[in-house]
Amino acid sequence: MGKGGQVPQRASDFQSELCSPGPVAAKLGRAAPPAARDPLLAAVPREVYMDAASNVPSASYYKDLNDKVADILERQRTGAKTAPPIELSHVVAADGALVYPNRYLWMVWVYSAVAIYLICQAPSPAVVLLGVPAMYLCYDVYSGVTHVNLDDQRNLAGLKSYILFQGCLEFQWHHAIPVDITKKSFVACCADLNIIVAVSVVINCVALRYTTGTAAALTGLKLFGAYFGQYCHRSAHTPKSKRPRVAQYLMDKGFMCPQNKHLGHHKPPHDANFCLVGYCDGIINGMLKHCGTNDWVWFGFWLAFSFGDVYVVNKVLTAAAPSVFAA
């Protein structure tokens, strides 16, 4: 994240970790003497990633991406001019965190079936038709709030890291390897959301008991909105010559974030245009301007949206058209 969202250390402060050959050499399959953990990692709970190394990637793209991480760390260790700026996420990776863990692709199909079931609980087809644009916009805001949290290096440490660590690690390495999302299949990209989708299902279907009626349908649409957000994000990093025609059409018509707009987020200081669909960037940019970049404030926003977005949309739609949505 940009100003106010980064851990306030200079790049040179990270050198003690990356100059130690141990973690990098281990990733590259070389023997190395044990190295002391860098003091900068004192606030990063090692238990949030210490077991990830046993999660052996089962697909070639995971191995290729983790090899790319190891290559970047090695270039940083040796001071190569082509190495990207050193971030806390890089120091954590050098300490052994696996940036791209294997994901269960079958869970995407299970969640999709759950989403279809929930949508089928709608009182009428009109609820679904009118709920699509409502959740389209709602999820775009949610994706922006989530993205702000995941781009913030402070969330790699402390209490919030127990919830956000892996997502933060991958999102922040995405700035160093922006094409990572195109190296995986679309289903694999959706599988990156397995945990956050599970959280959404538990919150809405278990805690809030949205299993019937309009609220259930909106929950199902939110789940598909998450996958559509991944489609938008992946398409924004896909060269136009390889981009599916439907994605290009939706970009041209303004339903998906144009590539040049999203790539603007990848220019330092990465402090604007966080929404994956892109329609609600103005809302998130305005929130950052007026609410600041305090990490706990944005974590609070994320919790509020996670627990309350479907509830609020349901209440608004029911109040606006009770004859359609009241169920």
UniProtKB/TrEMBL annotation:
Membrane topology summary: Multi-pass membrane protein
Coiled coil residues, start to end: none
InterPro entries: Chloroplast_FAD_CarF, Lipid_desat
GO biological process per UniProt: fatty acid metabolic process
Gene Ontology cellular component annotations, sorted alphabetically: membrane
Record's keyword terms, sorted: Membrane, Transmembrane, Transmembrane helix
Main subcellular location: membrane
Location within or outside the cell: Membrane
Domain Lipid desaturase: 137-290
Family designation: Belongs to the fatty acid desaturase CarF family.
This protein's name: Lipid desaturase domain-containing protein
